[in-house]
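Protein in question filed below.

…
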Amino acid sequence: MYILDDETKDYAYTASTDLDRIKVDSQRIAGVVNKWIQSDAKPVWIDNVSRHPDLSLIENNSVRSILAVPLITKKRTIGTLYFYNKHVSKISPFPEFTSEELRLISSLTHQISVAVENHKLYTDIHNIFLDYIKSIAAALDARDEYTHGHSKRVAEISVGIGKELGLSEGELEFLELSAIIHDIGKIGISESILNKPEQLTDEEFNIIQSHVVKGSKILEPMSRLRALMPGVRNHHERYDGKGYPDGLKGDEIHLVARIISLADTYDAIVSNRIYRKGMLAEVALKEIKKGAGTQFDPKLVMIFTDSMEKILKQ
């Protein structure tokens, strides 16, 4: 199956079954046939590819016959469904595709077209959702020139740790989104406190700490964002149980929150702040190691510092 890319206007190979032996040849032929489909929006039915005037010159050692049916929805061709090298059987004793088989396949393509269109719509909505989250994080970071880009950097570091752990693609996306909005609760905190160059009072420090609870309350009524709450609420918990707001310890702390905690601290150490300049990466890694088993998950510390030290040596 080939699906039309709305941006490039080219057909992209999307899925197949039992195609390994003829994959290369079939893709060469599809490169030509897809243009016919896009132009005419009609099925292409060829019993002998090697004798076809427009296909005989294409290098091909495995494709004997093809049936290509356009996928059409809302009067627009969005892809092509291919069938190659029909097998003779008791149910279908002819080596060529028949008009009855074409009618049967064509009757199914509408359902396939709708499914493909719905999937593309879901993907578009999902991408809009991701952009929305990233825009929120960017707006939040922009409130403080010293933490500009902080959420993005924490997300990148977190995903790097996740990859070292062997997390799946879906788990990495969940981790990335959690990291991007980990400080969303700071929306409810005054800029005069966030950007204060002097030492914070106890009251102001408590207000700063409240951002994790504020963040979880922001997410709670939002069904699509509620799942991200552990990374937002618990990224200031400590491995030894002396963190906030819930005093969780060890594996009681969600893995996502443990990863973000480490990434957040590293970026805070190496970044310039209103009250100090950022430190060298080597210094930050030493501080991270000091916190292994107390502030941070020791396994994550080892994975992160080993990875970073290899990068710094390059």
User: Anything to note?
Assistant: The beta strands are 2-4, 11-13, 44-46, 66-73, 76-84. Residues 2-122 form a domain with the Beta-Lactamase fold (CATH 3.30.450.40).
